[in-house]
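Chapter summary example: a protein plus uridine-5'-diphosphate-glucuronic acid.
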Amino acid sequence: MEIKNICCIGAGYVGGPTMAVMANKCPDLNFEVVDFNEERIKKWNSKDLSELPIYEPGLAEIIKDCRGKNLYFSSLVDEKIKNADMVFISVNTPTKTSGIGAGKASNLKWVEACARQVAENSKGHTIVVEKSTLPVRTAEAIMTILESSKNSNNSRSKQISFDVLSNPEFLSEGNAINDLNKPDRVLIGGENDQAVEALCKIYKRWVPEKKILKTNIWSSELAKLTANAFLAQRISSINSISALCEATGADIREVSRAIGSDSRIGAKFLDSGPGFGGSCFKKDILNLVYLAEYFGLPEVATFWNAVVKLNTWHQHRISKLIIKKLFGNLSSKKIAVLGFAFKSNTNDTRESASIQICKDLLDEGASLSIQDPKVSPEQIEIDLNLAMSSNQNKNLVNKNNSEGCWEYSSKIEDALLGADAVLILTEWKEYSNIDWLKMSDKMRRPGWVFDSRSIIEPKKVLKSGLNFWRVGDGVI
Ligand code: NAD
Ligand code: UGA
């Protein structure tokens, strides 16, 4: 099973960076990344690298090196499948919004469409690799679709054959290139040793062999969902304790340090914040909840569902707290919102805590001035489902209007101008370096700084005469 030509269906946050790094590590192999979203493909092919559809540190440099040599982006899905020895399925698998399992199960229509496209277009032997995060036993459905194409009465169908592997992706956004260059592990699940070895051979070029884990295909599929569930569970756990810290005079940073020093617990993923966001944690836990219910394990389902419920509660807790500190009234008040992406170093806003918290504040009539170094106003408009106000800056606060409104500020200082409060929601580095003595002069008094990411030194804000709250700090 010699692999020369690789096709990846889905040029998103996973498909794009993953294939870019693979192409960079394997100059002798050819990588075709395909997507039916022509607009996205156009951006991947843009000469101006600042126009790539995804912002990820280090990505533009790799694209510059490999694009046009052994890495190509196109919307010719069928044609590129025809030439491929290996096809990665890297398409979206969002939560179903209707039908059986709505609100929990993953919508697999895009994955199924890929399997059908491969079935209709492949030639010879093709290894199909699940890169998307999928419910356990999806490989079975993919194989059934692929195998059914062998029953056709044409000459192609007599010559085609398939293997299906599971090779879930563990990259985290904002750190994707690093994660792909030096993964903690690569997981390959499959039944046919030769096919597993063919994929293994690709990774072995830059990943030490001991980090390549081979499992059966169902373990691989379930391990991906479980990894995300465990990570999200840590965040809900620490966020739940942050509320207790605020009530008791403890400090979540000290509690995190104390528990994280236990090598069995470990220090990572113990930062209390505004609640986890991102396209996957909630979706993958809900998928796990659905699977547990499907297999008649309601206690397992309830256990994992609590992780998502706590996250939603925590986001509303922060909104309520801000409203209370601002005398229970947000109309005629301007709040500078710093950060809209679900974490720093990405332009991704999917499931960002900022969306829910901003909506809560808008419901109370607040005027929000939103700033983010990488998120566009168009994206914010979509996420808030509310058009941007035409009254920018000083005129933003309309005293006669009890409905919330928002504006986009390209500079931090513009967002702060005349603001009653500043709310930090994403941990962008520039927000931790704000000169509060200087900036506080631009704000109305009494002014507040709410730091949901713990990136600000309290003394610096308090010295400027502003009030300060940060998550999990019962001491201030
Ligand atoms: P995405 O929405 O950014 O990208 C998916 C792309 O697939 C889209 O551009 C869409 O147009 C394209 N697509 C869908 N069906 C297609 C078809 N039949 N033919 C051609 N193109 C098609 O999604 P993503 O964030 O890259 O996630 C992809 C998968 O990887 C999901 O299952 C997700 O859970 C998983 N995952 C995501 C991350 C992450 O950090 N975003 C990390 C690990 C795993
Ligand atoms: C996460 C996992 O970390 C990846 O391993 C996985 O591949 C990916 O999901 C996926 O399957 O999509 P990602 O969502 O990109 O990656 O980012 P994380 O760093 O995990 O952060 C998720 C959310 O948790 C963010 O909102 C972040 O701010 C928050 N978080 C993270 C905290 O609030 N505290 C922490 O200590 C860590």
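Key point: The mean pLDDT is 95.
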